[in-house]
């Protein structure tokens, strides 16, 4: 199966719809995991530890989680538009 947009929308087998559903579920789990990481870092620090006292590794986790929260809804919109193209004949 090829998931390149022009090929997958014109010659899509029925399994492509389930593949898009699986990508939606993976995206939702990524967003929820990122929210969990952000909440844990901001709420479960040691008493008296400021954000600038955190180790670099924790900062990388925090930035990665924020990037996931920012990007995953955009990717979900893109694959939703592909789903509409395949099943409902739209042309995004």
Automatic annotation (TrEMBL):
<dbReference type="InterPro" id="IPR036927">
    <property type="entry name" value="Cyt_c_oxase-like_su1_sf"/>
</dbReference>
<dbReference type="GO" id="GO:0015990">
    <property type="term" value="P:electron transport coupled proton transport"/>
</dbReference>
<dbReference type="InterPro" id="IPR023616">
    <property type="entry name" value="Cyt_c_oxase-like_su1_dom"/>
</dbReference>
<feature type="transmembrane region" description="Helical">
    <location>
        <begin position="20"/>
        <end position="44"/>
    </location>
</feature>
<keyword id="KW-0812">Transmembrane</keyword>
<dbReference type="GO" id="GO:0004129">
    <property type="term" value="F:cytochrome-c oxidase activity"/>
</dbReference>
<dbReference type="GO" id="GO:0016020">
    <property type="term" value="C:membrane"/>
</dbReference>
<keyword id="KW-0472">Membrane</keyword>
<keyword id="KW-0813">Transport</keyword>
<dbReference type="GO" id="GO:0022904">
    <property type="term" value="P:respiratory electron transport chain"/>
</dbReference>
<keyword id="KW-1133">Transmembrane helix</keyword>
<dbReference type="GO" id="GO:0009060">
    <property type="term" value="P:aerobic respiration"/>
</dbReference>
<dbReference type="Pfam" id="PF00115">
    <property type="entry name" value="COX1"/>
</dbReference>
<feature type="transmembrane region" description="Helical">
    <location>
        <begin position="56"/>
        <end position="84"/>
    </location>
</feature>
<dbReference type="InterPro" id="IPR000883">
    <property type="entry name" value="Cyt_C_Oxase_1"/>
</dbReference>
<dbReference type="GO" id="GO:0020037">
    <property type="term" value="F:heme binding"/>
</dbReference>
<protein>
    <recommendedName>
        <fullName>Cytochrome oxidase subunit I profile domain-containing protein</fullName>
    </recommendedName>
</protein>
<keyword id="KW-0249">Electron transport</keyword>
<keyword id="KW-0679">Respiratory chain</keyword>
<feature type="domain" description="Cytochrome oxidase subunit I profile">
    <location>
        <begin position="1"/>
        <end position="92"/>
    </location>
</feature>
